[in-house]
Design a protein that fits this description.
326 residues, alpha/beta, Isopropylmalate Dehydrogenase
């Protein structure tokens, strides 16, 4: 039996508190408990929640109420509004969840969305986002973002940069690190002993023999060959326009792409509501719903909890694959 998953509040003025309750409503009858770390006053009025003293208490109450590990904030939340006064507590909740995961008290960390500007304004947050802060807490220099669903797993090698910058940022070392971390994550966290990894080309038709660019032959192909020589089941570069139909997806366990949209457009087209953000390369498991704070609908009862539900389910599956236990 794995330990419960720690779910962070994220930005309390966003949809995080309400989708946490909605996720509990769906998952309360399934194996695997989670507990929410935050200020109980930030949950929707009338939420079936009960405060616990420690993560060990979550399983006993999970069938009846959302277990809450109390973390007091500066004041009430205002749905639809980011409040810099809450910034330090948002940051501290993330660090607390990581400590619980690293100690074994929690089997994984699942994070609700944060609002980076509020964290910068309220607490001088020094990281580009959630993932970089988690890596710093773990003392890890390099992590990989995977978007995962039942339909597809994708990894962008370069992420939030302009398309015009991709050829300069994309290096052999970066691609090799991304492939190695992806391979290790598929083995350790997804329980796939010999993962098959498809590698997309950078240019149309994977360069078409140099007619549409030389990066595919000069940069990507040698890295793929090097890992293939080490007995990894890595193949490519492949034309990205033929990688994502059903028959092609059946031939690999994950696709490593060269830039953000090349990876995210396919998965968001195939499974928009249930995609999960996974951080590979951390010493603990981290999943997250693949959406933001959604201030425009916060507090209106319109938020879709599907991505968070899948993120919590995946966190439990990854914990079982790793053998994380209390």
């Amino acid at each position: 039996m794995t330990a419960p998953v720690a779910l962070t509040v994220g930005e309390p003025g966003g949809i995080g508190p309400e989708i946490a309750v909605a996720a509990w409503e769906t998952l309360r009858g399934e194996d695997g408990a989670f507990f929410w770390i935050g200020d109980p006053s930030h949950l929707p009025a009338g939420s079936p929640a009960v405060e616990i003293d420690a993560p060990d208490d979550a399983a006993a109450v999970f069938g009846q109420a959302l277990p809450v590990l109390r973390h007091d904030f500066a004041g009430p939340a205002e749905p639809g509004q980011a409040q810099p006064a809450h910034a330090q507590a948002v940051i501290d909740v993330i660090a607390r969840a990581v400590d619980l995961a690293r100690s074994g008290a929690a089997s994984a960390v699942c994070t609700c969305p944060i609002h980076k500007k509020a964290l910068i304004d309220g607490a001088g947050f020094a990281y580009p986002g959630h993932t970089e802060y988690l890596a710093a807490l773990a003392g890890v220099d390099r992590v990989v973002m995977m978007l995962a669903s039942d339909a597809l797993r994708v990894v962008p090698t370069t992420i939030h940069i302009p398309l015009s910058d991709v050829p300069a940022v994309l290096t052999a070392n970066l691609l090799e690190e991304t492939l190695r971390i992806t391979h290790a994550g598929l083995v350790r966290d997804f329980g796939i002993p010999e993962p098959r990894i498809a590698v997309a080309g950078l240019n149309p038709h994977a360069g078409e023999g140099g007619a549409m660019g030389h990066e595919d032959a000069d940069l990507i192909e040698p890295v793929v060959q090097k890992l293939h020589d080490e007995q990894m089941l890595v193949f490519g570069p492949l034309p990205a326009d033929t990688m994502f139909h059903a028959a092609a997806r059946a031939r690999y366990d994950a696709a490593v792409c060269m830039y953000h949209d090349q990876a995210l457009i396919p998965i968001k087209t195939l499974d928009f509501d249930r995609g999960v953000n996974v951080t590979l390369g951390l010493p603990f498991i981290r999943t997250s719903p693949d959406h933001g704070t959604a201030f425009d609908i916060a507090g209106k009862g319109l938020a879709n909890p599907s991505s968070l539900i899948e993120a919590l389910r995946l966190a439990h599956r990854m914990a079982r694959a790793r053998g994380v236990s209390p």
